[in-house]
Fold this sequence. Notes:
Helix content: 25-40%
CATH topology of the domain at 65-311: Aspartate Aminotransferase, domain 2
Order of helices and strands: HEEEHHEHEHHEHEHEHEEHHHEEHHEEH
CATH architecture of the domain at 65-311: 3-Layer(aba) Sandwich
Structural class: alpha/beta
Number of helices: 15
Largest sheet: 7 strands, mixed
Distance between the termini: 30 Å
Mean pLDDT: 95
CATH superfamily of the domain at 65-311: Type I PLP-dependent aspartate aminotransferase-like (Major domain)
Number of strands: 14
Low-confidence stretches: 149-159
Bound molecules: pyridoxal-5'-phosphate
Amino acid sequence: MSLFDDAKKVIPGGVNSPVRAFASVGGEPYFVERGYGSKVVDTNGKEYIDYVCSWGPLILGHCDQDVIRAVKECADKGTSYGAPTVRETKLAELITEMIPSIEMVRMVNSGTEAVMSAIRLARGFTNRDMIIKFEGCYHGHSDGLLVKAGSGLLTFGAPSSPGVPVSIAGNTLIAQYNDISTVDKLFLEYPGKIACVIVEPVAANMGVVPPEDNFLQKLKTSCEREGALLIFDEIITGFRLSLSGAQGYYGVTPDITALGKIIGGGLPVAAYGGRREIMKLVSPSGSVYQAGTLSGNPLAMAAGIATLEKLKTPGFYKKLKEKSDYLRCGMDENMSKLGLKYTLNSIESLSCLFFTEHKVDSYQTAISADTKIYAKYFHGMLERGIALAPAQFEAMFVSAAHTDADLDTTIKAHYETLKNL
Ligand SMILES: *Cc1c(COP(=O)(O)O)cnc(C)c1O
């Protein structure tokens, strides 16, 4: 009996989030004993250079000493009070300082909750019910967003989930990422009915697909014209592309932003924020209801503050990008040596190797990637001590803890793996 078999008896599929189960690559997941720096160590004592990085939060790597110290100091004073603490104000100040479009921010516990609440707020603000999302963009698992969702669901080949009422899904309209005409068509079809457009500014749950041709600016223009709000789901891109997220990186300002992952430094935190005029509608200052027993949890705030403070170190993102660029160049070189023409998309410290020779700039081109070859690639890398996401349509995350030696080891493993595919 494996640890996975034990888990499967008491946890659906043996995991607490579907993609961890290795369903799309086959085999059994490694169980992690501990992580440090760029590495995770499994229960058999095998070490891996980790590019999952908890699916994005660990931009500083595992077990960053400043983050761990902050959490320990905080835990010594208790783990939750259900009353305000100054840490909540401090993290909110850090976020509002770094991301100018966020004048006020509310903490929640998961990205799902942040996006769900942001959409409720957009509906409350505009008095409209319908929303537009993009095929292949993932925004958590709330009902209205499990409509042709990407990532885990995409991998499992289900267009939506049983249990989501048709009446709820009916308020979600689906457009195509990087194609503004599909958005404008929906606005034309449903005049005055659309509360918001929600987008991952860099789509990072269908692999990694950056915006092209001023797509984000065009979205902003269309939303303004139609009186709809623009929501950026920056749960991956926030504090990943730059200190001011994708919005700072591309110079496009959304009305509401959802944050998560990095802002918790590996603890469960997410947030949504935006213009004061909009955020004032959130209860108790306004009437759009939203609450949380553990929201603003002291341990999570401590981890978030310690993480964001470190990101302010001058040159942090430049160094991170250099690491990622080094890795990308190495992989590109490997592929030209081997005469392979797979598509490697990359932006800052996010990348994805698509097993297709097409340019990947849309959901349709992304899903043309060969997931069977990815599965072989994944296992080849894992055998060589490199932990990648166990699914094709996920990002590879480089952290500040990845060393030059790690990157060289990875490039070598990449060459050997591709050669033997
Ligand atoms: C991870 C993710 C979410 C969901 O966050 P959870 O904390 O898993 O609920 C939402 N949007 C994007 C873009 C994500 O990557």
